[in-house]
Write a structure and sequence with these properties.
Blueprint: H1 9-12, H2 18-21, H3 24-35, H4 40-54, E1 59-66, E2 69-76, H5 82-89, E3 91-93, H6 98-106, E4 110-113, H7 132-140, E5 143-153, E6 156-166, H8 174-194, H9 196-205, H10 215-228, E7 232-240, H11 242-249, H12 251-271, E8 276-281, E9 284-290, H13 294-307, E10 315-322, H14 323-326, H15 331-355, H16 362-379, H17 384-398, E11 400-410, E12 413-421, E13 430-437, E14 440-447, H18 454-469
Antiparallel strand pairs: 1-2, 1-6, 2-3, 4-5, 5-6, 7-9, 7-10, 8-9, 11-12, 11-14, 13-14
Length: 472
Amino acid sequence: MTRRGAASPGARAGRRSAAALVGVRGLALAAHRLDRCRTLEDVQQATSRMGVEVLAARRVAFCRIEQDTSRILDITPQPTDPRLLWMVRSSYRADDRPALRALISDRASWVAHAVDIEGQPVAEGDEEAGDAVEIATLNEVDAGSALAAPIIVNGAVWGQIYAVKAVGDGLFTVDDVARAEVLAALAAGAVARVDLEDQVRHLVADDPLTGLANRRVADSVAESALESGDETCIVMCDVDGLKRVNDQMGHDAGDDLLRTVGDVLRRVADSLPGTTAARIGGDEFALVTVGRKRAEVAETMATTLAMYPLPHGAAISYGLASTAVSGPVSARQLFRRADVEQYRAKRARARRLKVATPTADPAVTAERVVVVGSAAIAAAQSGVVPRLCALAAAVTETMGGSAWAVLMQRGDERSAIARGGSPSDLERDQSTTTLEHGPWLVEIGVSSTAAEGGVVKSALDALTAVAVMGAS
């Protein structure tokens, strides 16, 4: 019998073999480390770091799942590859990721392999290799195998552990899945322990649909910010297109749109530490910043909204008010000034869209498409998906359309990778042009008044090829 606390000299000295760390001893060590965690940040860091050792993985991410959206809170080791950096900063909707949907609804772990046991690419449509979207993601980052296990807190899926192996490092097995599920259970216990206070605050102060703060919290934060004497900014936001989405697609789609808005504004807040994002009510949202310059807030808003366009052709109109401009005012007055600016921006956008009639000359349209599309591809982050998204958004706006999508064809099935569009609440006849290159498809919205001759189609096809091939 081994006494509790007994350990070999090597273990006491911290020299643990890789074989030991992927077994029971590794899980026991993870349990001890998680038991010492006192904050949620401690839990996520300990889980991702121990996950690399326990699962013999190249990289492990600790993810939060809210409103059917997964985002990475911590990843070990931190990536330097621009393709991975883009993925780490992205959020993933269950509507676009079948494996994530199954993980949330069925609490089911999953594995996917882009290569076989000999390191050769798996055959297209090989069901035993796993979900096609996850395989495409592995190919995107030159990885060989992935697994995910749900983190279940208080009977609900709170998050997930996501791990990848590089090509040549072998494939995840059922034993690895079992270890990941045990690690996820240990992490869930730690989360439930350290996150109790946060859960209470969530019940009292957060909007149940989006998870953002509510109006009462926003008012309180604004009052405290003004009392501090530091520059305070309030950004009032309104969702353009919510009524159209509710009328045409139903209120479930409208709720999904509001959740996406919440996710975008949460990203703005994360980029401006100390910022509070809140849903004021209906389709009205607000951001309250303290100690941040007006120019910094405006630039962060513009950059984030451009990077994460809303689905279904919806958009965010916003107005910004700052004490650096207004001088000493009450919180109510600052909210009102931001609201006035928001309505001014909304009306200006509507006027611009109303007069922006696409040209009917195919040659001129093709030239515009090439200039705008090339610039969008050049400015995009590296990787096929961000380049195609940038192209789709730029060309759709040039062609007078609203909605666009990037999809992947796997056999007879198409999976949506990204959707978005330029803001448009105006009723106009729309059509869709589909561009293809290999397994990638780009759906572009086109106004009925835009030219669509052969020269335009050739320009669009060429740009799509440049976006895909240039990312390789």
